[in-house]
Amino acid sequence: MTGFTEHSDNYRAGFACLVGRPNAGKSTLTNALVGSKVAITSSKPQTTRHTIRGIVHREDSQLILVDTPGLHRPRTLLGQRLNELVAATLAEVDVIGMCLPADEKIGPGDRYIAAQLEAVPRTPKVAIVTKSDRVSKDALGEALLSVSKLMEWADVVPVSSTTDFQVDTVADVLTSHLPKSPPLYPEGELTDEPERIMVAELVREAALEGVRDELPHSLAAVVEEMVPREGRPEGSPLLDVRVNLFVERSSQKAIIIGRGGSRLKDIGTRARAGIEALLGTRVYLDLHVKIAKDWQRDPKELGRLGF
Ligand SMILES: Nc1nc2c(ncn2[C@@H]2O[C@H](COP(=O)(O)OP(=O)(O)OP(=O)(O)O)[C@@H](O)[C@H]2O)c(=O)[nH]1
Question: Are 135 and 102 in contact (CB under 8 A)?
Fold first, then answer.
């Protein structure tokens, strides 16, 4: 494989997710962490909602910072399903860093997120007290104390992303919770896998509704493409999402499509609502139904479908 560097037996690699209410300092910290060590940038425009925000490459580690789309948008259509997806995504990361600004009191928004984090008990959570340059030493001490009481933390770290105070420490602490693993990404590589998996899940879910007994495991959804539509007016972006639904037999294809395409249209409408809620942007969803014979028994085909 090209792009992978030599690595020692102590190499650690894994995923971290920075959460926190709006304005908590997540983006600034991400940039400070990734900084000049940035290993990936997206080739696509409008990447703020991209799942992978950056990779902190160090000699002995690779810390992959990901977003959890949907975390801040509960109470939408498919709300419960979305919350489950968020919890499932959070459970997939190796460590969660929750950003709490030192110069603001803990509020309902923080408690809401903390409650969501309680739903993933096995994942270590690190409290990151941001913007520490904005407060006095005493006030920082108090902030650290009240943050400590919010929930069970694996670590509590103060940081200032703008004055570069303790940014390396945050990277150290997050990395310490990563598993021993060879590098997961070659330098220069970008992927948005978790987001794609969640989108595919929403489509599969919508497609199975009402026909779960008929097509239990014979259905796979694969996101082929997610690209921002070009030439859209400022402030009104549209994301083109193309998804293939794979079934095993033509009879199953007929079930999915329905009379005159009516069922496929319903699937599209339901799935689109969920995807828009998840990604926070308008979506044009293009669904195609394809037959992949016996895909469940063919490892190569399974790989292609992302299993
Ligand atoms: N003084 C100071 N300001 C900071 C620091 N980190 C972030 N800020 C400021 O706080 C504001 C919010 O920071 P962001 O990084 O955009 O916060 P965010 O959590 O990504 O916000 P959302 O994208 O709304 O979720 C910005 O104006 C930053 O410049 C810090 O360490 N010190």
Answer: yes
Q: What is the ipTM of this complex?
A: 0.97
Higher pLDDT, 100 or 212: 100
Question: In this structure, what CATH number is given to the domain that contains residue 199?
Answer: 3.30.300.20
Hey, whose CA ends up nearest to atom 4 of ligand 1? 131
Do 149 and 202 belong together in one domain?
no
pLDDT band, residue 115 (cuts 50/70/90) = confident
Last residue of a domain, one of 147, 176, 205: 176
Domain extent at residue 151: 12-176
278-304 tens-digit pLDDT: 777 899 999 999 988 765 555 555 555
For 213-276, the DSSP string reads: TTSSSS-EEEEEEEEEPTTPPTT--EEEEEEEEEESSHHHHHHHH-GGGHHHHHHHHHHHHHHH
Q: Are residues 163 and 209 in the same domain?
A: no
| Domain-embedded: residue 281 | yes
Shared domain check, 213 and 291: yes
pLDDT of residue 147: 98
Nearest CA to ligand 1 atom 7: 25
Choose the residue to mutate in 17, 19, 28, 130 for probing ligand 1, maximizing ligand atoms within 8 Å of C-beta.
Answer: 28
Query: In whole angstroms, what is the distance from residue 137 CA to residue 143 CA?
Result: 10
Q: Of all atoms in ligand 1, which is nearest to the CA of residue 130?
A: 31
Ligand 1 pocket residue status of 24, Cβ below 6 Å: yes
